[in-house]
Every structure is written in structure tokens, then in C-alpha cells.
Design a protein that fits this description.
Blueprint: E1 9-14, H1 25-31, H2 53-59, E2 61-67, E3 73-84, E4 90-99, H3 107-112, H4 116-120, E5 126-130, E6 136-139, H5 141-147, H6 151-156, H7 165-181, E7 185-192, E8 198-210, E9 213-222, H8 224-242, E10 246-253, E11 256-262, H9 264-270, H10 274-277, H11 292-303, E12 308-315, E13 321-332, E14 338-347, H12 349-352, H13 354-363, H14 373-390, E15 393-401, H15 404-411, H16 413-430, E16 436-441, E17 444-452, H17 455-468, E18 473-475, E19 478-480, E20 484-491, H18 498-514, E21 518-521, H19 524-545, E22 549-558, E23 564-575, E24 579-581, H20 587-593, H21 596-616, E25 624-627, H22 630-633, H23 638-648, E26 656-661, H24 662-667, H25 669-681, E27 685-691, H26 698-702, E28 708-711, H27 713-717, H28 727-738, E29 742-745, H29 751-759, E30 764-765, H30 776-786
Parallel strand pairs: 20-21, 23-25, 25-26, 26-27, 27-28, 28-29, 29-30
Antiparallel strand pairs: 1-4, 2-3, 3-4, 5-6, 5-9, 7-8, 8-9, 10-11, 10-14, 12-13, 13-14, 15-17, 15-20, 16-17, 18-19, 22-23, 22-30, 23-24
Helix pairs in contact: 15-16, 16-17
InterPro entries: Biofilm_reg_signaling (IPR052155), EAL_dom (IPR001633), EAL_sf (IPR035919), GGDEF_dom (IPR000160), Nucleotide_cyclase (IPR029787), PAC (IPR001610), PAS (IPR000014), PAS-assoc_C (IPR000700)
Pfam family, one: GGDEF
Organism: Telluria aromaticivorans
């Protein structure tokens, strides 16, 4: 075929993928393909546009531009009809092409014959046609660009993939209305690109029928600039609404200035809702017979269309006077004419009452509003004075929250502040109005309970206080447990002066804390215990100054070969009066008095020096482990300090191990993860001590960089042959190995324990059965005698 015949029509078959299956001479003449070369070629190779086979097949054809023989192009109507085999299964397509020369139709028909694919890419927004399954059958390049997808990816995509989850229900409902009700819909929604970039769009769509099937044809317009304008307008409105000062906008109307806008601060200050103020002149709030000069200043300034600032009194809606610092500014239109005034009013009544306010600030705690230390001493002194005169009793209660530092570490300081506020309210609710509740410092509260008729009465009040502290505090979806230790001292039995009463209550509180919390009344024995505690704290300071502390080293043995695999550094105190003291007798006081960090630094220095000596003697590969407390490793720069020590002593990575009880790490998982990662990066191994003593969080342990776990002493001591008491140790060994960790059994004291642990795969053993803790010289002698540590 050499010319475009208006009646020309060719028909051929394709397979399911749109590849030519049959080809006749008419087709060969029209398109220039031979009958031998045509089969297997994609039908889309005949098209001059970028139409894709899935879109054509879904639509049943289209008006398209085609390439004809001789390099010419022209418009044609492509119709696709599904073919079926003898079993009724879909098999291929029948393709019919009808050609009409452009000069045989009207201009409107020629324009109407323009392929949709050529038009949609000229549209300023996105264009799309989707089927009932939510698949794209036609779209333009703008859609590909916004979605950051290739054409093939768009063809395979689901329209819902382009919307945020929160928008999908609305989109689904609108698509349903289009297909089921024939509705024309529009909605504002965000396109979500592959990269996550969001583009606000106004989408519209309606139902269009094509070859017997219905499709949703629609367009989208980018409304980012409109959204930005709306955002700025909304920001301005929010700023006006959020302003702490009252704002009034009035319109000039002759001698009056009619209110057109008031913000929430004005409503709060004046007490008038916006609906009652708008449409009235602000003079309706005037306080008769007050500040006539200032009102005259306003009147003249408004008449002269100039700014003015005055301080005067107005009336709130409830009739109450308030001091108003008012600044009025004229607003001009585009022609320079004053059309409005903006008035900014500030309620300065509180400033007039500044003296009372300052007094409250000086005497009350800023966070909780309770009496502070200054007011506490004044109230307690006054209560003792009256009680002395009237022969009455006064109870002083000192309350310290349990584990408050853990609350801050676990939930954050904001949660800690909330707990303090809630506790303050509960304490105030549990006492009488005549009593005083004060925040002494941090998480410590002091109560002054006046006019106590009997100790039984005091006990009931204190029990009410204790119960008020047992309920958890809700914060951020968490229930924060709150408990407290309460110490009680009674005037005149436990002290005559305020300072004596507080000191006695503090001793009682400390006694309660040492016994797990609860309530304790002061007794003379507590004073003696307090003096002993103070003497111990002084002794610890002296021990550091006079080199009374020393380390022993207990070897860790290979369970199979019996070779030495490392040492644990154990602290001792050579007390000048009490002899050698174990850590359990003094470390708790060191923690309480804040001396634990200094002691821990000393231990690390000594352990590094010992390791250096071993290496100089040729004993390598024998790490030294050091136990550290939460107070030590939560200090800023803890890991950096270890790294500096190792560098100073010339120790390679792996020379030092840090032992931390499992319960301490679980108490603050975030800190535990950070610490383990920092230790790993510094070449220091982390060893989990007391494994299995409490509840183990195995998923948490898997997140840590841990070298080994040490069985709890209780698990080892419970070993007795193959009885039930031995099952815990066996289970813990299996768990450690399942976590791919080395397992150490410590505190091994009997042959039965050693045999059991060895037979059940425990990797290393430590305890009196093998060796007591040794001084450094004794360690060297042992290694020389064994001659197997290398």
C-alpha cells in the first residue's frame, strides 16, 4: 500500500504479550514489514508515540500515531479484541487498524484525533487513568517525576502506594464513589515519592467508559505554593492567638472604633468572649471615675490618627478592676489612609502586687510550689516555739524517694520532674492545712506536723503519707513506680531545736532506707549507728590517703586443661583497727558518700599496673577483670579514662575486662548498650557478673558486645550432684553457650561443684577450690611453678 486510503483496514493477530503472531500482505504493504520478519516483533514497534502494551491492552486499543512504510507517520485507530481458545481460555489478541488521512476530516476531528498520550504530557499537573483494581493504565511524565518512578514501575504500581497511610481511607472512598456512583470527586492529598518526599496535590477525577470498561480519569495540581500561603496566614493567626498579651483590632467608624478582632489573651484578660466584644467600641470596658487623664490621651490620639501608650484601669466582665498597659498603633491601607487601629494590652495587675509575688518566690520551691528550705526552717522554728509554750508535740518527717536517680536515668529528667510534682501534690493532700510540706533538696522532702496529740495520731498521719507514695506515676504511657523511705522525729523527745529534729529524722530515714524503705521512728540507737557510719566514711577517706587499700588476684582456670586463663582483681582494706576488711563491709558506704568513683579509679590503676608486670615477665594473654559499679560507669569519660590508663601502661586490646552485674545493665538498657559499644571500641571486654541472679533479658544481652558471663554465686552453691538445685546452673550454662558466650563458674568451693560444672561444659572456673585470692608476688610464684600459663 503506497497511499493512505481512507478505507484502508488491516487485521492481524498478536500473542498475550503484544508480539505479532500472523502477518498478511496488506500489513506488509502498509507497514513495510515482511511476512517472514514480522512474527515475534512487538506491535508497539509500529507506534510513533510512547504507548505501552499493558495500557493499550487494558483500554482495548486507542487512537494512535503509527509509522508506515516509507518512513511516513499518520493517525490510525487501533482496536484490540481478546481471542479465546477452544477451552474458553484467553489466548492472544486480534488487532484491527483503520487509517484516515488528515485531509479528509474537519479541523475539530483532526484535533480530536490527537492521541491522548501526546496531550497528557503537555498538561501542567499530573494526568492519570486508573482501572477498578487501582492500577495505572494511562499517565503522563509529571506523574513519573513526582513519584520518582520509571514507566514500568508506574505500570506495576498500585495507586494507594503513592499516598500516606493516613490518607488511604479517604482515597479509597473517593475511588469507590467514582466507579459505583459516577461521582466527580476532588480531594487534597500528599503524593509520596519513592524517596519519601511529599508533594501536596489537589486531585480530581471522574468515571470514563472505554470499550465497555470504566476507568477513573483525573488530574492533579501541585498546591505547594497555596499551602505555603495558607501556612503563613495560619501562622500569623496562631501567633495572634498564642500571644500572651491581649490584641484588639478596631475599624475606624466616625467617632467610634468598632472591634473586629480580639485574641484569646484578650478574652482571658478581660473576661469577655470574642462574640460579646466584636462589634462594640472598647470604651464599654471603662472603669468610671478612674484615670480620666489617660482616657483623654487615648481619645485625642485616635482623633489625630497617631500612636499612644498609657497605663490605666479597666473593668473585667466580672466587675474586677485590672491594670492595663495599653499600646495603640494606627494601620494604614494602600492609599495611606488610617482604617484600623491595633491595640496591645498587657495586664500589669501582678506587677502592682510585686512585693507579695517576690516574697512567694523567695520562700517557695520553683518546681513543686512547696515551701523551700528557707521557709521550712522558719516554720519549724515557729512550730517548736509554740509547742514548747503549749507543752505540745511536733513531728518532723523526712522523706527520701527510692531509686530516684534510676527514674531520671531510665525515663529522663522530665519524668523525674513530673514525679516530684505528683509527690508534692500527694503529700499536701495527705496533711492538714496547718502543717508544712517542704522540698529540702533534690528528691528529699520534709514535713512539719504541728499539734500532735499522741504518738498514735502521728503514726496514723505518717501511715497515710506512706500509702500516698505507693501508687505509680503515669508518664508518657509508662507507670513509674514510686516508693519512699520515711524517717520521723518527735519534739520534745528526739530533739529540742529544729536542727536536732531534722538530723534525727534524717537518721531514722537512713535506717528505713537501709531496710528496704518504709517508716522508721528515731531511736537513740540510730544516733550510735549514724556515728559509726560517719566514722566509716572518714576511715575510707583515710584509707585512700594512707595506702591502706590493696588488691588480691584470684586466678580463673580453664575447665578442661586446668591452665590459668586470667585473674579477677579483688579489693581489700587493711584497717588499722579492724584488720583486713572485705568490700561488702565498706563499699555501700563509699557509694553513699560519693567516694566510690575515687576508689574505682585507684583499683583500675592498680589492675593495669599488675597486668603490665605480668606482660613484662612474659605472661601474655591473661586478662585482668575489674568489677565496677553503676556510679562509676555512669560517670562521663569513664571509658575514655580506661583507654588512657591502658595506653599509659602499654597494654594492648584485650588486656582488661570490666565486670558489671547483669541486673545493673538491665536497669538502664540504653546506658548498657552505649557502654558495651564504647568498651568494645576501646579494646576492653565486657563480662556479665551474677548471671541468672535475677530475671534475665536474653534479647537485651544479645544487643551487647559481651565476651563472657559469670554464673551467679547462688547458682554455683546450689549444685548438689544431679538434684533439682543443680538444674539452674546447667540451664544457665546452656543459655550462655546459646548466646555464643564463654561461661565462667565462680565461687567454686567443692569438688562436686567443680565436677558438675566441668561435665556440663562450663568453660572456666574460679574459686577457693582452685586458689584463694593471691597477692601479686604470690601470683608470680604460682605461674612460675605451674609453668603452663603461656
Amino acid at each position: 500500500m503506497t497511499t493512505f486510503d481512507p478505507s484502508a483496514q488491516v487485521t492481524f493477530l498478536t500473542d498475550d504479550e503484544g508480539k505479532v503472531a500472523t502477518w498478511n500482505p496488506a500489513c506488509a504493504s502498509l507497514f513495510g514489514w515482511t511476512s517472514e520478519g514480522a512474527p515475534g516483533r512487538p506491535l508497539t514497534d509500529l507506534l510513533a508515540g510512547d504507548e505501552r502494551w499493558p495500557s493499550l491492552a487494558s483500554a482495548g486499543g486507542a487512537r494512535v500515531r503509527m509509522r508506515f512504510s516509507g518512513g511516513r507517520e499518520g493517525l490510525a485507530t487501533l482496536s484490540l479484541l481478546r481471542q479465546y481458545d477452544a477451552a474458553g481460555e484467553p489466548q492472544g489478541w486480534s488487532a484491527a487498524i483503520v487509517i484516515a488521512p488528515c485531509d479528509s476530516v474537519s479541523e475539530s476531528d483532526r484535533v480530536g484525533c490527537t492521541p491522548l498520550s501526546e496531550v497528557v504530557d503537555l498538561l501542567p499537573g499530573t494526568f492519570y487513568a486508573i482501572n477498578r483494581e487501582g492500577r495505572f493504565v494511562v499517565w503522563n511524565h509529571n506523574l513519573e517525576r513526582l513519584a520518582e518512578m520509571t514507566p514500568d514501575e508506574v505500570a506495576a504500581a498500585q495507586v494507594m502506594d503513592m499516598f500516606e497511610p493516613r490518607d488511604r481511607d479517604l482515597a479509597l472512598e473517593n475511588i469507590r464513589r467514582v466507579f459505583e456512583e459516577g461521582a466527580e470527586v476532588s480531594m487534597e492529598i500528599n503524593y509520596v515519592a519513592r524517596s519519601g518526599r511529599e508533594t501536596p496535590m489537589m486531585l480530581g477525577g471522574t468515571r470514563v467508559s472505554c470499550n465497555g470498561d470504566d476507568y477513573l480519569f483525573g488530574m492533579g495540581v501541585n498546591i505547594a505554593s497555596r499551602r505555603e500561603k495558607e501556612r503563613r496566614l495560619l501562622l500569623s493567626e496562631r501567633a495572634l492567638n498564642a500571644a500572651s498579651n491581649g490584641i484588639v483590632i478596631t475599624r475606624c467608624a466616625g467617632r467610634d472604633n468598632i472591634i473586629e478582632y480580639v485574641n484569646p489573651a484578650f478574652e482571658r484578660i478581660a473576661g469577655y468572649p470574642a462574640l460579646e466584644a466584636i462589634g462594640r467600641d472598647p470604651r464599654f470596658m471603662a472603669a468610671p471615675e478612674f484615670d480620666t487623664h489617660e482616657r483623654s490621651q487615648i481619645r485625642v490620639a485616635l482623633a489625630e490618627r497617631r500612636p499612644v501608650s498609657v497605663v490605666f484601669r479597666n473593668l473585667r466582665k466580672n466587675g474586677e478592676l485590672f491594670w492595663n498597659d495599653l499600646n495603640i498603633t494606627p494601620v494604614r491601607d494602600e492609599y495611606g489612609e488610617v482604617t484600623h487601629f491595633i491595640g496591645i494590652l498587657h495586664d500589669v495587675t501582678a506587677i502592682k502586687q510585686r512585693t507579695d509575688h517576690l516574697e512567694h518566690e523567695v520562700n517557695h520551691d520553683a518546681l513543686t510550689g512547696l515551701a523551700n528550705r528557707t521557709l521550712l526552717w522558719d516554720r519549724l522554728d515557729h512550730a517548736v516555739h509554740l509547742a514548747h509554750r503549749h507543752k505540745a508535740m511536733v513531728a518532723t518527717v523526712l522523706i527520701d524517694l527510692n531509686n530516684f536517680k534510676t527514674i531520671n536515668d531510665t525515663f529522663g529528667h522530665e519524668a523525674g520532674d513530673i514525679v516530684l510534682k505528683v509527690v508534692a501534690r500527694r503529700l499536701q493532700s495527705a496533711v492538714r492545712e496547718s502543717d508544712t510540706v517542704a522540698r529540702m533538696s533534690g528528691d528529699e522532702f520534709v514535713l512539719v506536723l504541728v499539734d500532735q496529740p499522741s504518738l498514735r495520731f502521728t503514726l496514723r498521719m505518717v501511715e497515710r503519707l506512706r500509702r500516698s507514695m505507693t501508687m505509680p506515676v503515669a508518664f508518657g504511657g509508662n507507670q513509674i513506680p514510686v516508693g519512699a523511705s520515711l524517717g520521723v522525729a518527735i519534739f520534745p523527745h528526739d530533739g529540742q531545736a529544729p536542727v536536732e529534729l531534722v538530723r534525727a529524722a534524717d537518721m531514722a530515714m537512713y535506717h528505713a532506707k537501709g531496710n528496704g524503705g518504709g517508716v522508721h521512728f528515731f531511736s537513740p540507737e540510730m544516733r550510735s549507728a549514724n556515728e559509726k557510719r560517719a566514722a566509716l566514711a572518714d576511715g575510707i577517706r583515710a584509707a585512700l590517703d594512707h595506702d591502706e587499700l590493696f588488691l588480691l588476684f584470684q586466678p580463673r582456670m580453664d575447665a578442661k586443661s586446668g591452665k590459668v586463663r586470667g585473674f579477677e582483681a579483688l579489693l581489700r582494706w587493711r584497717h588499722p583497727k579492724n584488720g583486713v576488711m572485705l568490700p561488702a563491709t565498706f563499699l555501700a558506704e563509699a557509694e553513699e558518700s560519693g567516694q566510690m568513683v575515687e576508689i574505682g579509679n585507684w583499683v583500675l590503676d592498680q589492675a593495669c599496673a599488675f597486668q603490665q608486670q605480668l606482660r613484662q615477665l612474659g605472661y601474655t594473654g591473661l586478662p585482668v577483670s575489674v568489677n565496677v559499679s553503676h556510679r562509676e560507669y555512669s560517670q562521663h569519660g569513664f571509658v575514655a579514662g580506661i583507654g588512657e590508663r591502658m595506653k599509659r601502661h602499654g597494654l594492648p586490646p584485650g588486656s582488661l575486662e570490666i565486670e558489671i552485674p547483669e541486673a545493673d545493665l538491665i536497669r538502664n538498657p540504653g546506658l548498657g548498650r552505649d557502654l558495651s559499644a564504647q568498651l568494645r571500641d576501646s579494646g576492653v571486654a565486657l563480662s556479665i557478673d551474677e548471671f541468672g541472679k535475677g530475671i534475665s533479658d536474653l534479647s537485651f544481652l544479645q544487643q551487647l558486645s559481651v565476651r563472657q558471663v559469670k554464673l551467679s554465686k547462688a547458682a554455683v552453691h546450689d549444685i548438689a550432684g544431679e538434684g533439682r538445685g543443680s538444674m539452674l546452673a546447667k540451664t544457665l550454662i546452656d543459655i550462655g553457650h546459646n548466646l555464643d558466650l564463654s561461661v565462667v563458674g565462680e565461687a567454686v568451693e567443692t569438688e562436686a561443684q567443680m565436677a558438675f560444672l566441668t561435665s556440663h561444659g562450663c568453660d572456666q572456673l574460679q574459686g577457693q577450690w582452685f586458689s584463694e585470692p593471691l597477692a601479686a608476688d604470690a601470683v608470680r610464684q604460682m605461674l612460675e611453678q605451674r609453668n603452663d600459663a603461656q
